[in-house]
Amino acid sequence: MTTLPTSLPRHEGPLTEDGLVQLLTPAGERVAHSDPYADALDASRLRAMYRDMVLARRFDTEATSLQRQGELALWAQALGQEAAQVGSGHAVRDQDQVFPSYREHGVGMVRGVDPVDILRLFRGVDHGGWDSEAVSFHLYTLVVGAHPLHAVGYGMGLQRDGLVGTGDAARDAAVITYFGDGSTSQGDVNEALVFAAVNQAPVVLFCQNNQWAISEPTTRQALVPIADRAPGFGIPSVRVDGNDVIATYAVTAAALDRARNGGGPTFIEAFTYRMGAHTTSDDPTRYRTHEQEEHWRRRDPIDRLKAYLETAGELPEVFQAELAGEADALGERVRTQVRAMPKPPADSMFEHVYATPHAVVDGERAAFAQYEASFLDTEEAHR
């Protein structure tokens, strides 16, 4: 008779730091470990990452303020997740494709998306806001966990187009998709893992474990690290310190190279912490403690890279002054241009739903126009 195990093979739980790849400590000290991808990062490239993280945070702060002033309907903060996003974003090549969720503002900025365009969606004047083909950064998906399936399908398309494993580094392409720890509890993500595994799709499945699915902690979603789920599907996985921009870059670059070269999918769990609210309609003080927030504030991803660069003498004051000016200019431009966004025509919601004419959408557009025309003009009615 088979004896069933009475306990799980691992007891650390989903919040353990065991097994995390870390190349930069919270104090900003470089871990003595040779990694070809990390070792290739010179001071100039690290300053570029630092700049992108600072600008991403400034944009996040401005967007939060705009929502509080009633200029945006909603905002999804990424405070504290800058290293996971900027580090991985720097590993993506021009020919790669990115399928984001709704919080990947830092990745989008690295890809060349104008941050003002990101706010068109949150102001409610556009379905998306940017040309996804021009920057290979697809529109935000608000349905939790739906887009990894799109990413895997796109990756399978790359395979069939002969754009994977050719040995031509300028041609071989891969796909990376971003989602949160809560998404891994969704059926769509698990279906994506199945398809990615059996088709050996050139996909990097990048999970930002910020420890909260809105107010539901990761500990209520898993008994083991999130990354441990992927090997069950036949996909290798790695856990990385998501507040360490160097480690995040190195791990993602290796996974993308593997995908481009025909090695198949990789699952990355970037262990981080959402220091802000889930969205501006959320109140995190209702479900987490001040002590926990302070613990993670001391692991701030920007502070640790700043400490490292300053100690190395690679963050001159003139650079910091210019960056501060650039951040202020970004903040002013975001405020000015968002407030100046014109109200779109009411029937614009029917545009770009399908690439070709669609009878159902055409019918809905006509019905909406008839409904709008049924209202009496207020000024005329009072004469």
Description:
By secondary structure, the protein is an alpha/beta fold. It contains 14 helices and seven strands. The chain has helices at residues 36-39, 43-68, 82-91, 105-111, 115-123, 132-135, 147-160, 187-199, 245-260, 290-297, 301-311, 317-339, 359-373, 378-381; strands spanning 97-99, 175-180, 203-209, 212-213, 216-217, 237-241, 266-271. α8 (187-199) links the parallel β2 (175-180) and β3 (203-209). The model has no long low-confidence stretch (mean pLDDT 94).
Question: Can you describe this structure in just a few lines?
Answer:
This protein is of the alpha/beta class and 383 residues long.
Output the keywords:
alpha/beta; 43% helix; two-stranded antiparallel ribbon
Helical amount among residues, as a percent range?
40-55%
What is the rounded Rg?
A: 22 Å
Series of H and E elements = HHHEHHHHEHEEEEHEHHHHH
Which blocks of ≥5 consecutive residues have pLDDT under 50?
none
Query: How confident overall, as mean pLDDT?
Result: 94
Q: Please summarize the sheet with the most strands.
A: 5 strands, parallel
